[in-house]
C-alpha cells in the first residue's frame, strides 16, 4: 500500500522528532514503518525528494526511510533468485571465508602449540633444577649430620 501523499494530521518527524507543520512543510511517509519525515530529514536532495514524491503520486514507487531500507535490503536484494541460485552465488564466498578461517585457525593453533611446548620445556627445566637443588641440599644435610655425629662422638 503506497504511503499517503499529504500529511493531514499532526505528525512528528521520525528522524528529528519535531512537529511536521501540515501544509507548510514538505513531508513523506515511510511505507514500512508508517512514520512521516520532513523532506530535509529524508537524506534526499530537493530534486530527489520531488522526483520521489511524483513517483509515489503516480503509484510507480514507494519510499522507505533509511532505517527501514537497511532492514529490508538483505531480504529484497536477491528476492528474484531461487534458493539454489542464492547458494550458487554464496558458495564461493563461503568457501573463501572457510579457507581464511582455517588459515588463521591453523596459524593460531600452531602458535598456541609452540608456546605450550616452550612453556612445557621451561617447566620441565625448572622442575629438574629444583630436583638437583634438593639433591644437593640432601647431600649437604647428610654431610652435616655425619659431621655433627663425629663431633658428638669426640666429646
Account of the protein in words:
- With 155 residues, the protein is mostly helical.
- The chain has a domain at 11-76: Zinc/RING finger domain, C3HC4 (zinc finger) (Herpes Virus-1), CATH 3.30.40.10.
- The protein contains three helices and four strands.
- The strands form two sheets. It has a two-stranded antiparallel sheet with strand order 1-2. Strands 3-4 form a two-stranded antiparallel ribbon.
- A hairpin with a 6-residue loop joins strand 3 (27-29) and strand 4 (36-38).
- The longest helix has 72 residues, at 83-154.
- The N and C termini lie far apart (116 Å).
- Mean pLDDT is 83; it is low at 1-7 and 73-78.
- Residues 120-147 form a coiled coil.
- Keywords: Coiled coil, Metal-binding, Zinc, Zinc-finger.
- One of its GO terms (molecular function) is zinc ion binding.
- This is PHD-type domain-containing protein.
- Residues 10-71 form the PHD-type domain.
Amino acid at each position: 500500500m503506497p504511503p499517503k501523499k499529504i500529511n493531514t494530521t499532526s505528525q512528528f518527524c521520525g528522524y528529528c522528532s519535531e512537529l511536521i507543520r501540515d501544509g507548510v512543510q514538505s513531508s513523506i511517509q515511510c511505507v514500512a514503518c508508517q512514520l512521516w519525515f520532513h523532506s530535509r530529514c529524508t537524506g534526499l536532495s530537493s530534486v530527489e525528494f520531488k522526483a520521489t514524491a511524483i513517483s509515489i503520486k503516480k503509484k510507480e514507487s514507494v519510499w522507505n526511510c533509511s532505517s527501514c531500507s537497511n532492514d529490508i535490503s538483505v531480504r529484497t536484494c536477491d528476492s528474484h533468485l531461487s534458493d539454489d541460485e542464492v547458494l550458487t552465488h554464496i558458495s564461493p564466498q563461503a568457501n573463501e571465508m572457510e579457507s581464511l578461517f582455517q588459515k588463521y585457525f591453523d596459524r593460531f593453533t600452531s602458535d598456541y602449540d609452540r608456546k605450550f611446548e616452550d612453556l612445557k620445556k621451561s617447566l620441565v627445566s625448572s622442575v629438574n633444577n629444583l630436583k638437583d637443588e634438593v639433591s644437593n641440599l640432601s647431600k649437604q644435610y647428610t654431610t652435616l649430620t655425619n659431621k655433627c655425629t663425629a663431633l658428638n662422638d669426640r666429646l
